[in-house]
């Protein structure tokens, strides 16, 4: 079963084409997201301000915004992404009509209207042309400018700058399991979360790939009557075990190759990160993955055996596949309250047990 399947052209196409496709899509989406944030700040070259409150009469006439392309867990300065600085001219207008004329003509990208009761109500109005709803870099830059200039006359430039970014250099201490407070290590927490999450996603991917091979291997042979001939040579237990381990191994090989390619590409970057994966966490996540894969593999093999054709088998199998992904729908509850009633009962329900337990490991 294993050798016959891995020699098929469809298997080789899936093995090579799928990671290439997802790598291409991921690159495009991440590049587009970063570029969109940069464009939002770059396009905000002029901010028209109409101040009816009088609180910003002596406000600075420019906004300086620093953009960091991506977060880095490395402590090596050479590996930290270079920041990009953007400058926005703040231009005061006497009325809204003239500002809207310039906005329509494309001479300014945004208009900020500060009403007379702004200090009491906090209400402001912004006028701009249609843009992406997912880019908020310009909004944060304007908010920092408002916060700084609202208090600069009372507390001075240094305090006003800090008021605009009060938690820029925050150190957060958390209580560990031994009752001691330690500085929160974002890199370590990300790794502790990503390892179980990685195995959870890997399990779902393995079920979708390996499950299809199991369904196809059993359902097609049953439909073509080949299975009846094979039953004359081996017992039902031996036949099902061979299907499970042979075709299940095909799915595991596929996923292992993909993981190997991902590690080969990202290995140098991961090696530079000052993180340490706990061996016990890795071992437990692996055990849950293997148990979950064998459970779903048995389910898929059984579905293929009791259904009449491949189409009917897929209709039944989709419900078990969705059950495996159910904990991801409730991931906020599982991570926020890993010992709560809902995660507890999901851990006892076999179709959701493996995924839920791996997510609880990362909580």
Automatic annotation (TrEMBL):
Coiled coil: none
Record's GO cellular component terms: membrane
Domain ABC-2 type transporter transmembrane stretches: 9-362
Cited Pfam families: ABC2_membrane_3
MF (Gene Ontology): ABC-type transporter activity
Keyword flag Transmembrane helix: yes
Transmembrane spans: 12-32, 193-215, 244-264, 276-296, 316-336
Subcellular compartments: Membrane
UniProt keyword terms in alphabetical order: Membrane, Transmembrane, Transmembrane helix
Top-rank taxon, per record: Bacteria
InterPro entries (UniProt xref): ABC2_TM (IPR013525)
Membrane topology: Multi-pass membrane protein
Protein name per the record: ABC transporter permease
Species annotation: Eiseniibacteriota bacterium
Phylogenetic lineage: Bacteria, Candidatus Eiseniibacteriota
């Amino acid at each position: 079963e294993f050798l016959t399947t891995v020699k098929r052209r469809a298997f080789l196409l899936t093995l090579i084409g799928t990671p290439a496709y997802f790598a291409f899509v991921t690159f495009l989406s991440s590049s587009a997201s970063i570029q969109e944030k940069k464009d939002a700040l770059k396009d905000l070259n002029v901010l028209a301000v109409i101040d009816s409150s009088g609180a910003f009469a002596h406000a600075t006439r420019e906004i300086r915004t620093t953009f960091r392309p991506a977060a880095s867990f490395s402590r090596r300065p050479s590996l930290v992404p270079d920041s990009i600085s953007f400058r926005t001219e703040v231009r005061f207008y006497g009325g809204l009509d003239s500002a809207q004329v310039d906005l329509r003509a494309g001479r300014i990208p945004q208009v900020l209207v500060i009403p007379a009761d702004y200090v009491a109500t906090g209400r402001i109005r912004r006028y701009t042309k249609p843009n992406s709803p997912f880019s908020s870099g310009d909004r944060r830059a304007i908010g920092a400018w408002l916060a700084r200039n609202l208090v600069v006359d009372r507390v001075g430039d240094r305090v006003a700058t800090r008021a605009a970014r009060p938690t820029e250099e925050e150190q957060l201490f958390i209580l560990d399991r031994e009752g001691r407070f330690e500085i929160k290590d974002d890199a370590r927490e990300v790794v502790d979360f990503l390892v179980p999450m990685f195995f959870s996603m890997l399990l779902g991917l393995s079920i979708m790939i390996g499950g299809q091979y199991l369904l196809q291997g059993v359902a097609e042979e049953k439909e073509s009557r080949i299975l009846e001939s094979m039953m004359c040579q081996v017992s039902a237990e031996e036949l099902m075990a061979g299907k499970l381990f042979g075709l299940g191994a095909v799915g595991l090989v596929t996923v292992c190759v993909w993981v190997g390619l991902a590690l080969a590409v990202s290995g140098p970057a991961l090696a530079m990160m000052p993180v340490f994966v706990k061996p016990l966490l890795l071992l437990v996540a692996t055990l849950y993955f293997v148990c979950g894969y064998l459970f779903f593999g048995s389910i898929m093999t059984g579905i293929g055996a009791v259904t009449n054709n491949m189409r009917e088998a897929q209709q039944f199998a989709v419900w078990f596949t969705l059950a495996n992904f159910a904990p991801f729908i409730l991931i906020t509850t599982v991570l926020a309250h890993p010992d709560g009633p809902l995660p507890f009962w999901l851990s006892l329900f076999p179709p959701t047990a493996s995924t839920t337990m791996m997510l609880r490991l990362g909580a």
